[in-house]
Specification:
Elements (H helix, E strand, L loop, with lengths): L10 H8 L23 E7 L5 H4 E2 L4 H5 L16 E2 L5 E2 L7 H5 L3 E8 L7 H10 L11 H8 L9 E4 L14 E3 L14 H10 L4 H21 L24 H14 L5 E6 L14 H20 L6 E7 L19 E6 L8 E2 L20 E2 H11 L5 H7 L17
Parallel strand pairs: 1-8, 1-9, 5-11, 5-12, 6-7, 6-8
Antiparallel strand pairs: 2-4, 3-4, 5-10, 9-10
Pfam family, one: DUF1501
InterPro entries: DUF1501, TAT_signal
Organism: Pelomonas margarita
Length: 424
């Protein structure tokens, strides 16, 4: 997308976003992740259900149209009272995420701005479905991309190789590969009827003639048993959205820190775990969104504490873990009449972890001039979310091209060259 003349003053910044390599994925530099060690590689996906406002998470304070379109909710510039935390000459981090700044400063946090789905839907349900299936615009896909990834990963399967944290099975793990479930709250691993050996023996006898049910029972009991054993040595201490369907059952950010610490600790203690998914709701801020203070700021603070707790729980495993944070779509550039923002297009993806070559805001920045906006109202999508994920799967998890094609079954050259998101 060509740049409006107004943004020529930012051309140096944009060239730096693209010059990391001659090979780029839709404007995404190919050296976002570090070279790997021999330890097992892990991937945690955190989905922010409800469409978080990426223009507040990583705000383009260098754009004149940013503050002009948000007279009440624009974040003050870096250095001002309640101002953004400066990332570079164009972008700043929301001050409520100050606890993550150490990850940025340590080169373990990066952002890919103006990223998202090529499908133009502004429906929470459809957009979340497309992100989790990995096939935007195609509703007939029966499984989720993380389940396909689990089936494609090299190495031996294990009952806890993949963990879904939450009260309901997510679309992203739908499929034939077995996934262990970790509940929410301090009683997530509390013993239940299914953990009773007599109950297990009775169900095994009942399902003996049904191979599918027998396999499900075996995977469930083995997974729960392995998680309980991994945690046996002890644990570290540790507003609804406008649209009630936007969160899809995900808990709010307020309760995220304790659950994230528990998830990170389990991943660290269980050497078999490679994949994990969790979701956080409460981001559909149509009303009274706030700026440096208010409901969005409070939720971001809780989210930041949770991501920092996840890193703490991972401990030494953090150096071999990539955490991807994403939302179904972004929000409008201009605030609405209720002091909030409505459903938009482009958003920002977060990459956090030891392998991430961070300290950079990446992606092709299209600008906020009206001529550059999608439908004249939204940040344009210049990087397909699958390009970011594909690069992580190839460069971090070592997935070959043939396996990547089964995870993201889309035609096109971009899947033959997923790029380098690991620093060499």
């Amino acid at each position: 997308m060509s740049m409006h003349p107004r943004y020529q003053e930012l051309s140096m910044h944009r060239r730096q976003l693209l010059q990391a390599s001659a090979l780029a994925l839709g404007g995404l530099p190919v050296s976002l992740l570090r070279a790997q060690t021999a330890a097992p590689k892990k991937l945690v996906v955190v989905m922010l259900r409800g469409a978080v406002d990426g223009l507040s998470v990583v705000a383009p304070h260098g754009e004149r149209d940013y503050a002009a379109g948000r007279p009440q909710i624009a974040l003050p510039v870096p250095g001002a009272e309640d101002g953004l935390l400066k990332l570079d000459s164009l972008f700043g981090l929301h001050p409520s995420l100050a606890m993550l700044k150490r990850h940025w400063d340590g080169g373990q946090l990066a952002f890919v701005h103006a990223s998202g789905s090529p499908d133009a839907t502004r429906s929470h349900f459809d957009a979340q479905d497309y992100f989790e299936s990995g096939t935007p615009g195609r509703k007939s896909t029966p499984d989720g991309w993380m389940n396909r990834l689990l089936a494609a990963l090299p190495g031996e399967p294990a009952p806890t190789r993949a963990i879904s944290q939450g009260s309901t099975p997510p679309r992203i793990f739908a499929g034939t590969a077995s996934v262990a479930n970790l509940g929410l709250g301090p009683n997530a691993l509390q013993r239940r009827s299914i953990d009773n050996p007599q109950m297990q023996a009775g169900l095994a006898k009942l399902y003996a003639q049904d191979p599918a049910l027998s396999a499900t029972l075996r995977d469930t009991t083995e997974g729960r048993g392995e998680m309980a054993r991994s945690m046996a040595s002890g644990m570290a201490p540790g507003e609804r959205s406008m649209d009630p369907t936007a969160d899809a059952g995900a808990p709010s950010a307020r309760s995220f820190a304790a659950d994230a610490l528990r998830l990170g600790t389990l991943i660290r203690k269980d050497p078999h775990t490679q994949l994990a998914f969790t979701a956080v709701g409460g981001w559909d801020t149509h009303v009274n969104q706030g700026a440096a203070r208010g409901q969005l700021a409070n939720r971001l603070a809780s989210l930041g504490q949770g991501l920092d707790a996840l890193a703490t729980g991972l401990g030494d495993a953090y150096r071999d873990t990539v955490i991807v944070v994403a939302s179904e779509f972004g929000r409008t550039v201009r605030q609405n009449g209720n002091g909030g923002t409505d459903h938009g297009r482009g958003n920002v993806m977060w990459l956090l972890g030891g392998p991430v070559a961070g300290g950079r805001v990446l992606g092709e920045w299209p600008g906020l001039d009206r001529a550059a906006l999608a439908d004249g109202r939204d940040l344009a999508v210049t990087t397909d979310f699958r390009q970011v994920l594909a690069a992580v799967l190839q460069r971090h998890l070592g997935l070959p091209d043939s396996a990547l094609a089964s995870v993201f079954p889309q035609p096109g050259a971009m899947w033959r060259q997923a790029g380098e998101l690991i620093r060499s």
